[in-house]
Specification:
Layout lengths: L12 E7 L4 E10 L4 E6 L8 E6 L3 E9 L13 H20 L7 H11 L4 E4 L2 E4 L3 E3 L8 E2 L3 H23 L2
Antiparallel strand pairs: 1-2, 1-5, 2-3, 3-4, 6-7, 7-8, 8-9
Length: 178
């Protein structure tokens, strides 16, 4: 359906919609974005703080029925935002972004980053400038070869060397296969 007539999707309209995918639902028009042809619909009961919002390309509407007009769904006095939930989500996202940022080496080659990523799958690792610190005690310096491993207990050092050798072989075979 091409919604050339914006009056069909006026804010506050209650519609019963059938999509080209066979879905049927009722909702209230929150807004219609003509350039993207996207209709924003608020579904579900009007009572309660939680509501389902659906974004639907208007060309996926097979048919619709006008059920009436209701008040503005974006009335500030009736909107509810769970600020605590939003702040918790924001803090969680920031923490996750910081964790992911710490996993990216600064001033290292892509090969060093690939080795770090491979080691991180089996061992706890972190960057300390351009040195990979494994198990908080074993250090792997550039050029990130088994001979570049230092520190830690002999058992931890041997384990890191073995994993490093296997990961380097795997990365080389993966690179050769491309």
């Amino acid at each position: 359906m091409d919604a050339n007539n914006g009056e069909e999707f006026a804010v506050g309209c209650l519609l019963s919609i059938k999509t080209t995918l066979g879905e049927e639902f009722q909702g209230q028009v929150v807004t219609f974005d003509r350039p993207s042809n996207i209709l924003v619909i608020q579904e579900g009961p009007k009572a309660g703080p939680r509501r389902n919002i659906r974004l639907l390309k208007a060309n996926y509407i097979k048919e619709f029925t006008y059920l009436g007009q209701d008040e503005d769904p974006l009335d500030i006095k009736k909107c509810y935002l769970d600020l605590h939930s939003l702040q918790a989500k924001e803090e969680s996202s920031i923490r996750q972004a910081e964790i992911e940022a710490e996993r990216i080496g600064v001033g290292v080659t892509s090969e060093a980053q690939n080795i770090f990523d491979a080691l991180s799958k089996t061992l706890p690792v972190r960057w300390e400038k351009t040195v990979i610190v494994v198990l908080n005690e074993v250090r792997v310096s550039s050029p990130y070869l088994p001979e570049s491993v230092s520190g830690g207990t002999p058992a931890a050092k041997d384990r890191v060397k073995k994993v490093l050798e296997l990961e380097r072989k795997r990365l080389q075979t993966r690179g050769a296969g491309l």
